[in-house]
Amino acid sequence: MKFEAATIKDIANALGLSTSTVSRALRDSHEISIATKQLVLEYATRINYHPNPIALSLKEKRSRSIGVIVAEIANSFFSQAINGIESVAKDKGYNVIISQTHESFEKEVMTLQYLASRSIDGLLISVSSGTQNLEHLKALHDRGFPIVFFDRIVEDLQTHKVMVDNFRGAYDATLHLVNKGYKHIAVLAGSENLSISRERVAGYLEALAQSRMKPSKPMIKYSQFAGLYIDEVEQSMNQLLKLRPRPDAIFTASDKLTTNCMRVLKAKGIKIPEDMALVGFSNSDLIELLHPPLTVVRQPAFEMGQIATGMLLQLVESKKPVKEFERKILATNLIVQASS
After folding, report:
1. d(CA 86, CA 79)
2. What keywords does the record list, in alphabetical order (predicted)?
3. Cis omega before residue 273 (within 30°)?
4. Which pLDDT belongs to residue 58?
5. What range defines the domain where residue 259 resides?
6. Which distant-in-sequence residues (6+ apart) come within 8 Å of 31 by Cβ?
7. Is 339 a member of any domain?
8. In which element (H, E) is residue 296 found?
9. Is 253 in contact with 205 (CB distance < 8 Å)?
10. Residues 6+ apart with CB under 8 A from 254
């Protein structure tokens, strides 16, 4: 049996009222008596009536929904950011439609096309590791469609952007390893396409330079899929383990790279930190339960989601075209534990 949502007509027929009277009662019109309003609202609640969002969007020329595109919802950073996004959207009366690219440019393009066809009011996006061509985003942006970038940003589009201080987070993590006495520090970073990868490698290099340690190109490994697949991480680790001198510490520049690097080291019987120290970006709530507990760079993901959503809704609800945009940079926090 096909589900059919309750309508204003159903309420009108049941109560012996006109549809226009029911409609005005639901809108709390002063033209309708308190007794009639109460009668209509009680019956609407009883039959689980909700206004048709499509009809409302046609009337208001707004769907009161926003789209969110991220790499992977299972990633603890993105799940926390989404919680922040939803907390603001709910308070403002907006629904959130979430999609994930799994680091695929093609999936990002198809997802954006689908969301745009659903008449979302605006978009929050953290681009995939494979995104180099921005035409799909530029086409919407040039037509005035509200877009806000968070975490993984692009420089070519003039709009609001929210990120962490990737350079400083990586610098602090690398300097911590230097100060602990490690001499051969490698880095596993995400795709070179991503702004966060370039900024974090730059922070790593600056920390080495400040410590008068010469960087070694073979010690820098990039991951096309940003650590999403453990096979790619294992391949990079195998290359690092063949180096002489072998790395005595590794800085991992993303959540997935950190956890998958730890899996690879444990599978190879390499003890952390006795054989090799490990420090990385991670927002996992389980770092204290790992053996050993991980030293991590934590990002304010929930706050980032909240700020980005506030910026997007400002674009959506503005009566005039917005021409001045903000670039918000949030601080990271180095949490030192036993892995280093």
Report:
1. 11
2. DNA-binding, Transcription, Transcription regulation
3. yes
4. 46
5. 166-299
6. 24
7. no
8. strand 295-298
9. no
10. 189, 190, 196, 197, 226, 227, 280, 281
Give the Cβ contact number of residue 179 at 10 Å.
11
C-alpha–C-alpha distance, residues 323 and 228, integer Å: 37
Query: How far apart are alpha carbons 233 and 224 in whole angstroms?
Result: 10
Split the chain (340 residues) into runs of 10 and give each run's mean pLDDT: 70 89 85 90 83 54 85 93 96 93 94 85 94 91 92 94 98 97 96 94 97 93 89 94 95 93 94 96 82 93 98 92 92 95
Closest CA to 302 of 117, 88, 115: 88
Strand pairing partners for 149? 125, 161
Query: Are residues 292 and 199 part of one domain?
Result: yes
Q: Using alpha carbons, select from 146, 23, 122 the residue that is nearest to residue 63.
A: 122
CA-wise closest residue to 185 among 126, 232, 100, 248: 248
Asked if 207 and 182 count as a contact pair (C-beta separation under 8 A), the reply is: no
Judge if 95 and 148 occupy the same domain: yes
Within a domain: 336? no
Determine the angle formed by the axes of helices 135-142 and 105-117, rounding to 10 degrees: 20
The domain that holds 307 is classified in CATH as: 3.40.50.2300
- The structure's pTM equals 0.81
Indicate the burial class of 105 (C-beta count within 10 angstroms; 0-12, 13-18, 19 or more): middle
The single-letter code of the amino acid at 233 is V
Q: Which residues pair with 296 in a beta bridge?
A: 280, 335
Residue 61's pLDDT is 56
What span, in angstroms and rounded, lies between the C-alpha atoms of 22 and 284?
50
CA distance 116 to 170: 36
How many Cβ atoms sit within 10 Å of the Cβ of residue 93?
8
The reply to whether 148 falls in a domain is yes
Q: How many domains does the chain have?
A: 3
121 and 208 share one domain: no
Radius of gyration of the chain from its Cα atoms, rounded to whole angstroms: 25
Q: Which two tokens stand for residue 68?
A: 């969110």
Count of residues in the chain? 340
